[in-house]
Design a protein that fits this description.
single chain, 462 residues, transmembrane
Length: 462
């Protein structure tokens, strides 16, 4: 056997996706063998599921992520009404959102390890049910302290923003993840030993019996145990790897106060302005960014003559977002300060949409096995940074002027936050090669190895 074949077989057995080795798969004349990651011949492997089922699962994950974010911010446009009802100031009324934002970043440290052991479906079901129950409970409290307490509990349970990217890596191949980033949602965690075929060119069909099996609310894997070391620590160990450790800082919870003070808008008008422009901008940004990124990957794979190019090629799609961020912030700050027509601030909000698709897909493609830890730490950085804005955002703008405050925000977002991205464009591949694969980080990898060792022992005994 040649060295190339030996290396390909070794990578296949370990099931560790190494982007630098994918070109070796071309030695097998089978289109399925060239896919990254390579699918097995098991109908239960999520990579083999029909595309319509993958899209359905993706839609449900995205819908749950939307509901989690909406649950956090739906009250923002009614701060003035909430303040009058509970006899607090409008800034103090925003604190009940702040506590939810903060705990949105803490909750995944509990749920991700549970998902790795008991399956993604179990965590989606339990967090969705408790999240809805606590959201309903917020409507029955009559004091600000009780509201903050119930909102704090509610903030722990939205999990899709952190678990969603890991679910995407379960379902989609490397070249599909740009566009891809509930109760009929099947289990996507796959711990079985993969069996490959060099002759089958079509994926095995998913039977209804197998699909019903995947709908079990609780999944258990022999030899898989939940340990204390699986919580919190693995995600922070990933912070040592520059290809993964970065975040963006943007204010998100103070627009309702600004619009009410400057334009005298009602809660409905504030909600339509803020929610409408942010929703349209987010949807357009995600669809356009995903399609462009996957197109870039396809073009560069042809140019380089490999199945999958290095993850750094995805950064070519980030420049539009890097331009819109400071532009939108500056438009918002200056038009608010100088009493412009209300369309100016709305155009600014529309522009303040970070194309997070690029950052997520780059980090997960760099460290696919650690996908859960990647999304977990991303979520923590975003939420822990955003939750502080309510304490100083409006006060800072009133003290130094909206134009100067948003100049500062633009500098933070465009210089401090974007500088590491430029460095990764230049040295990303070299950094990954020097640091190697993360060790003792991926809970899923450890669980897979334990599961395989148990199967090996059982096979020998039988």
């Amino acid at each position: 056997m040649s060295p190339i074949e030996e290396r390909s077989d070794k990578n296949t057995e370990e099931r560790i996706e190494n982007i630098n080795d994918v070109e070796y798969k071309a030695v097998i004349n089978n289109p399925r063998s060239r896919l990254v990651p390579r699918p097995s011949e098991d109908e239960g492997d999520p990579l083999n599921w029909p595309m319509r089922l993958k899209i359905l699962v993706l839609f449900q994950v995205c819908w749950l992520a939307f509901l989690g974010t909406w649950n956090t911010a739906a009250i923002n446009s009614a701060y003035s009404l909430l303040a009058d009802e509970l006899h607090v100031s409008e800034v103090e009324a925003s604190y009940q959102t702040t506590i939810v934002v903060a705990l949105n970043g803490v909750g995944p440290f509990i749920w991700i390890p549970l998902a790795n052991v008991h399956g993604r479906r179990f965590v989606y079901l339990i967090t969705t049910f408790i999240g809805f129950a606590t959201a309903l409970g917020c409507g029955f409290v009559h004091s600000f302290g009780a509201l903050v307490g119930v909102r704090a509990i509610n903030g722990i349970f939205p999990v899709s923003m952190a678990l969603g990217p890991a679910t995407v890596t379960d379902l989609f191949f490397y070249h599909q993840r740009g566009r891809a980033l509930a109760f009929c949602l099947p289990e996507t965690m796959y711990y079985k030993q993969r069996v490959y075929s060099d002759t089958n060119t079509e994926p095995p069909r998913l039977s209804m019996a197998k699909y019903r099996e995947l709908l079990r609310p609780w999944t258990s894997f022999p030899g898989v145990e939940l340990k204390a070391k699986h919580f919190v620590i693995p995600a922070f160990r990933m912070a040592l790897y520059p290809s993964y450790c970065f975040t963006a800082i943007f204010p998100a919870v103070t627009y309702a106060i600004i619009f009410k003070d400057r334009f005298g808008w009602s809660a409905l008008q504030c909600g339509l302005a803020y929610g409408g422009t942010m929703t349209i901008g987010s949807i357009l940004g995600e669809f356009v960014a995903g399609k462009i990124i996957d197109g870039i990957v396809h073009r560069d794979s042809k140019r380089l003559g490999v199945d999958s190019p290095p993850p750094e090629v995805r950064f070519k799609g980030i420049w539009t977002g890097a331009t819109l961020i400071p532009t939108g912030l500056l438009i918002f700050g200056f038009t608010i300060q100088y009493n412009s027509h209300w369309s100016g601030p709305l155009a600014g909000i529309f522009g303040v949409q970070v194309v997070a698709t690029v950052c997520y897909t780059y980090s997960i493609d760099s460290y696919r096995v650690e996908g859960s830890e990647v999304s977990q730490f991303f979520n923590f950085c975003r939420q822990s940074t955003s939750c502080t804005v309510a304490f100083y955002g409006v006060k800072l703008c009133n003290a130094i002027g909206f134009q100067f405050a948003f100049i500062m925000f633009a500098l933070v977002g465009s210089v401090l936050a974007f500088a590491p991205i430029v460095w990764l464009m230049w040295k990303g591949a070299w950094i990954r090669e020097r640091l190697g694969r993360p060790r003792d980080v991926s809970v899923a990898e450890e669980i897979i190895l334990n599961h395989r060792e148990l199967n090996t022992v059982q096979n020998r005994e039988s």
